[in-house]
Amino acid sequence: VRYRKILIPVGVVLFSVLMAGLLRATKQQAVINPDEERVWSVETTSVRIGNEQPNVHLFGEIIAGRQANLRSLSAGVVVSVNSNFIDGGKVVKGEKLITIDPFIAARKLLEREALLSEARARYEELLVTRSSDLALLAEEQRQLDIAQSDLSRYEELESGVVSKQKMDEKRLAASQAKGVVLARQQRASVLNTKIEQQQAVIDRYDASRERAVENFENTQMYAPFDGYLTDIKAAQGMQLKSGDFVARLIDADRLEVQIFLSNSQFGRMFAGSPSFPPLEIKWNVGETEFLFDATIERMESQIDSSLGGVHVYARLGSEASKSFLRPGAIVNVLAQDRVYEKVVRLPEEVLYDED
Predict the structure, then answer these.
(1) pTM of the complete model beyond 0.85
(2) Burial tier of 160 (Cβ tally within 10 Å: 0-12, 13-18, 19+)
(3) Residue 343: CB partners within 8 Å, gap ≥ 6?
(4) Where do the TM regions start and end (predicted)?
(5) pLDDT digits (tens, 9 = 90+) for 157-211
(6) CA–CA distance from 135 to each of 142, 189, 193, 198 (Å)?
(7) CA 73 to CA 159: how far, in whole Å?
């Protein structure tokens, strides 16, 4: 037993030594291959050093350069609508869009016209009365002149020739004639004041009638310019209040592209030139591509430094209004970069590992 305890560890050690020798004897030697020169197939082209102006590829969004919120200017029930008064409907300037029941507005207009006619008739009556009073005043003034002349002749006669009673009668006649003239003059002054007052009444009623005419005309809504309708909120039979939103009209002839330029792009595009470069707009719809010309007209009034750039707005040409292009479309924008002097134009794929 004692020899067995010694032989087992010795046997394990001998077995390990034998296995290590066996593995070393059967180990494969690594073959070191020498470096071989690799061959690459390349294409060559002739280049020319000169001034180059590449293009900048951007994205933009179509927006409405001009739009108007159409609101009802009269209260009532919508009795009729235009067949084009639908979302996306195209209308022209002056085209009737909706008609509101004109009954109340027409009755108010008739009432204002009646009041104005009455005021004018009263004015004419006062003018006729004044004309008659002026004619009577002239006659009464003539009678006063006769009475005063008669009194003067009697006063020039010697005392005793004319009785005192006769003199008193002449004085009374002259005094009465003068009183009549003064009364007529006062009446004429009052008439002049009433005529001025009546003219003010006519002006007030005329202004009221003009407002009634405007209210009557406001029962019909017309398109202020050519464009497309959207956000339709009115329909036949709907009750509207004055000021209710009816629809939004987008100017068909003033579509714009809103483009964001980073600070570096903005600086390169406008380097050395204060004018805005022309743009080419591409609108891809499926496999169809539409091309439009555009010109940058303005940039945003305030610059947000947190954006790291600026928005500019380009107006599309007249051909855009004849297409299906609408606000909200995303388009590709091709703009001219700055001019690079003494450079070589190469395709981007020739660069390898930034070299």
Answers:
(1) no
(2) exposed
(3) 49, 50, 51, 52
(4) none
(5) 756 566 777 777 778 888 888 888 888 888 888 899 999 999 999 999 999 999 9
(6) 11, 14, 18, 22
(7) 87
Are the beta carbons of 65 and 315 closer than 8 angstroms?
yes
Q: How far apart are CA 336 and CA 270, in angstroms?
A: 10
Contact 202, 117 (CB under 8 A): no
Give dist(CA 315, CA 323) in Å, integer: 15
Measuring CA to CA, which residue among 226, 230, 255, 225 is closest to residue 318?
A: 255
Six-digit token pair at 118?
């009455």
Query: Residues 166, 171, 177, CA angle at the centre, nearest 5°?
Result: 125
pLDDT at 351: 67
Tokens of 209: 């009638």
Q: How far apart are CA 119 and CA 122, in angstroms?
A: 5
For 218-247, letters b (16+ CB in 10 Å) and e give bbebebebbbbbbebebeeeeebeeeeebb
Structure tokens at 61: 């969004």
CB 28 within 8 A of CB 297: no
**The two three-digit tokens of residue 325, written as one number:** 């292009």
